[in-house]
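Tip: read the tokens left to right.
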């Protein structure tokens, strides 16, 4: 089935006869595989009499050989389908795989978002990427880590033509008020000693879903740039940027990156509501401190907030 998908990924018409010849199977076997592609992977295939079959939209499939040829800084393991790339990295770490290594999937059936949310992960349209890291510098090496990952994703996207993308504390990437990428860090082991961090990154790349299938405003690289993005190029650029930023963070800590982060913070100076469980704190964004905590002016006082369960919304009057 995947060989057939590779033949069809260009989005052009292919006759049943040509596909059968390339696969070494009959035309009715091709037909069965096409149906499987539609049912199992949720892809739409057009059939036109006299011309053959084509995908509704061209696909940019992940390719191990292409990635290996780009000189990526760590091993990338590509999967067709996973529950969650973060979950797969966790399993591999528990079985003794040595970091750093990245796991990427064409789709996720149980993609995880922050605060227990689902991350919608249709086949071959976006990037679902998880990187395993070993942390042996104690709590300091974790300080601001998720914000540093945000900077790396930001640089990768900007370098590929997305000039208008910015950050929203703690680690969302937005174009205007629409989300284009999200980051989920998960920890394995004792943060005070040696531990592992799973850096999960989801980027909306060539997503074709109707807007209302996701419960928050979103956009994609294709929508912003106006042309489909080669996902292998994106993976290679992302890994390169991550390697640079993570190395700098390890060497010098988060404080040297604080100003750079604030310069790209879309909500700097805005009036916001910070949701912390059942509590809502109203304030104005002053910036972040050297640990990556959010600084708010609340009732004229400066206060710092950090923690994975916090969420920021703009106040109506902002
Ligand atoms: C967010 O809610 O903003 C974080 C989304 C993180 C999604 C990515 S996709 C790759 C990795 N695997 C997961 O299950 N989640 C992260």
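Filled-in amino acids:
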């Amino acid at each position: 089935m995947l060989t057939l998908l590779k033949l069809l990924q260009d989005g052009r018409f292919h006759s049943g006869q040509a596909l059968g010849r390339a696969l070494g199977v009959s035309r009715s076997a091709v037909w069965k595989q096409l149906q499987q592609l539609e049912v199992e992977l949720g892809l739409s295939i057009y059939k036109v009499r006299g011309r053959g079959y084509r995908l509704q939209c061209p696909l940019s499939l992940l390719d191990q050989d292409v990635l290996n040829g780009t000189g990526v800084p760590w091993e990338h393991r590509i999967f067709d389908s996973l529950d969650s790339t973060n979950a797969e990295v966790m399993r591999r770490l528990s079985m003794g795989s040595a970091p750093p290594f990245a796991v990427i999937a064409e789709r996720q059936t149980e993609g995880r978002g922050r605060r227990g949310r689902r991350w919608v992960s249709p086949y071959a349209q976006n990037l679902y990427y998880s990187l395993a890291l070993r942390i042996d510098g104690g709590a300091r090496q974790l300080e601001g880590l998720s914000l540093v990952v945000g900077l790396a994703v930001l640089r990768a996207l900007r370098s590929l033509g997305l000039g208008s993308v910015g950050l929203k504390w703690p680690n969302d990437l937005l174009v205007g008020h629409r989300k284009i990428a999200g980051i989920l860090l998960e920890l394995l082991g004792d943060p005070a000693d040696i531990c592992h961090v799973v850096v999960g990154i989801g980027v909306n790349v060539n997503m074709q879903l109707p807007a209302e299938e996701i419960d928050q405003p979103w956009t994609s690289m294709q929508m912003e740039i106006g042309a489909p993005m080669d996902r292998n190029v994106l993976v290679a650029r992302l890994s390169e940027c991550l390697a640079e930023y993570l190395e700098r963070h390890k060497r010098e800590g988060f404080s040297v990156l604080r100003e750079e982060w604030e310069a790209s913070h879309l909500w700097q100076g805005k009036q916001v509501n910070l949701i912390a469980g059942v509590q809502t704190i109203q304030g104005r964004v002053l910036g972040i401190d050297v640990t990556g905590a959010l600084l708010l002016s609340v009732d004229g006082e400066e206060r710092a907030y950090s923690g994975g369960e916090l969420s920021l919304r703009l106040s109506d009057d902002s």
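Residues 5 and 23 are 11 Å apart (CA to CA). The chain has ten helices and 14 strands.
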